[in-house]
Amino acid sequence: AVVSTQSTGVLQLFANKFTDLQDLTINPPPNLQHLGVGYNQLSDLSSYMSPYHWPNLLSLDLSHNKIGHVMSTLQTLSELLSLRNLSLIANPITLAPGYRGCTLDMIPQLQILDDVSISDDDRLHFTNISRESVNWDEAIFTIVIPELENLRLPAENEPIDDSSFHYPAQKKYSYSVRFNFVSDTDDTISQCDPTSPEPHTMQEQESRGCTPKSRGCSSKSVRVADFPPAAGLKPSITATPPSPASKEIIEATEAELSREEPELMGILYETESIDHPWEENPKFTKPVIVKCSKLTLLEEFLQGEIQFSLVEKVVESFTAIAPPDPATPTPTPTGKKKDPTGGKDDKKKKKDGKAPKPMTDKDGNILKWVDGAPVYNEIGHIRVDLKTILAVGSAGGKIECTMTEKPPPATPMPEEGRTSVASGKGGKASKKGGKKKVVTPVPIPPPAPLKMEYQIDMVKWNNIQDCRTWNQVPEVPDTANGTVNTGL
Length: 488
Description:
The chain is of the alpha+beta class. The protein has helices spanning about 20-25, 70-75, 100-105, 120-125, 200-205, 245-260, 295-300, 345-350, 385-390, 465-470, 480-485; strands at about 5, 10, 35, 60, 85, 110-115, 115, 140-145, 150, 170-180, 220-225, 265-270, 285-290, 305-320, 365-370, 375-385, 395-400, 400-405, 420, 435-440, 450-460. It has a 7-stranded mixed sheet with strand order 1-2-3-4-5-6-7, with no helix packed on it. Strands 10, 11, 12, 14, 15, 16 and 18 form a 7-stranded antiparallel sheet that branches. Strands 8, 9, 13, 17 and 21 form a 5-stranded antiparallel sheet that branches.
């Protein structure tokens, strides 16, 4: 759409699929005061936004474009000394935590930014923030799973106890939540086959070279688009012979499907594991910090979905004969001496906290617990729409999980012939009115649905101190609660 009003100096060029403004700068409109080029595909302004072309420009609308570099964009716009009103809404640049503060500091003559008036206090909070040595194109997210609701009790949840060594094996359970998020890596798919769907179990993933690192650290890259069910399968269009009337529609559809789309790359993240004694509603209190400096790619990722998978780690422990300790001397037989106290001192030592007796087998060999290889099982997962983050800067809620483990056993039915007799002896009904009573099975109620609570926040710096705090420590700053802003 093109709207031009020469008398008021207004030029609107919305939704024209512009990738640059070169033609417009050949003969720029004289005395132009407002330029609207929103809903286009502009990514670089360095060659088209100079005071030579736009000396009287007061208002500039660049909303809904592909501008993704903070410093280069603001340095170009800072040369427009007459600029008072600027809109960069819905550009990848707005995902950076220091976007607003850096804009206020570098373009001090601005009065309105993204339809929000600028006060003197706003400008004061970000004084000299543009001089900070930080990656201005890096977006930061905090992701936390506040609670899991109705986590089912494992079938074998016995605590390991030295006194129960006679059991052949015992199992230890721990739980974590895994998810994929867009990353900065340019590498191709590492050791995972890009043509096959994702493994059903985490153990298969690790055997294929996709072992993640815990506590928010990134691992080898895997495709975010490969969430089960596997993506990338094109539907069959010509299953039946097409009619002549539908030929053009089929050709257009085939062209749309054959169009190459940018492949989103992701990193597998994992929350801190919960390995303390089982509880029905565990909480993952430590957030995972996710950073991405490819803002254009990040914006595309946030227009889709993310999957959070609850993973159960099972470690089976066995008892084995412990090797002899070289530091422990071998006792030598000596003659027993009579204890004048009658053994009272030995009893007192045991009572005062003497080391417990080690567990031994029937032959007297000292035993120890040995952990086997861990096995990972996905219990359930949820899928979350990320578009809310682009709108308000955060997303959260509690969703019922889609279960991937086996359902609980059905209600057992009574054995045939199991009856009780109203009268008679020996379990035989009498001929006079004997009635059989069928044992009614006790129904097993279905388990409460497993629910997962999640919270995703995009970090925004409210002052220069937030900028310094987040760039001094690798983990979550103590003031993190004050720096997470729910609005763009």
